[in-house]
Amino acid sequence: MNAMPRSPALFALAAALLIVAHAQAQPRTRSGIIPAIAPAAVPDTLGPNDSCGLLSTESGPTPERMDLYPATITQINGERPRMARPLYRMEPGKHVLVVAERIPRSHLGTADQAQIAKMQRRKDFSGFFKPLVIEVRADTLQRVGVRLVRERLNAAGIRENAYWEPVVWEEVPRECR
């Protein structure tokens, strides 16, 4: 039985983000970070001509000096991965991930830590997860993490779970076979 909640609001948000992604065709911030939207149908499924791309949350340290931190992938295309792992082989194309932040609490003030803990105790689980829609590219490693949004690191931003956003923070060529 799948213990992961499937919030209709979360999937509605993911669908809206997918529509925005199509309309904006690969939006990037000034730093080159791709904001939210995620991966392929079934992990470890090859695409046409045995092509695949790689997604990782653990393949090297995240650049914390840029307010980028580790993430956990909790769902891929609406399904919970059978096994959590640091690297997922994915069919090229658009995919939707559900991501949880792993910002070290030692990087936050004590008042922020208390507010985050309070927000995460909500019954709707909206304090834990956000969708990320990405375009998986063949023979490319995409590193997934979260960006701390310091300007939203206040009581209202934390209550709205707006203090972080899922991102693809790096793409590097890497053969996937």
Task: State which percent range the strand residues make up.
Answer: 25-35%
In whole angstroms, the N-to-C terminal distance is 32 Å
Biggest β-sheet strands, sense, barrel: 6 strands, mixed
Unreliable stretches, pLDDT < 50, 5 or more residues?
A: 1-9, 15-41
Rounded to an integer, what's the Rg over CA atoms? 16 Å
Please, how many helices? Answer: 3
Q: What do you see in this structure?
A:
This protein is of the alpha+beta class and 177 residues long. The chain has one domain. Helix content is 19%, strand content 31%. The protein has helices at residues 8-24, 110-120, 155-159; strands at residues 34-35, 53-56, 68-69, 71-76, 87-90, 93-101, 129-136, 140-148, 164-173. The strands form 2 sheets. Strands 1, 2, 3, 5, 8 and 9 form a 6-stranded mixed sheet that branches. Strands 4-6-7 form a 3-stranded antiparallel sheet, covered by helices on one side. The radius of gyration is 16 Å and the shape is elongated. The chain starts with 7 loop residues before the first helix and ends with a strand. Residues 1-9 and 15-41 have low confidence and may be disordered.
Question: Top keywords for this entry?
Answer:
single chain, 177 residues, alpha+beta, 9 strands, 31% strand
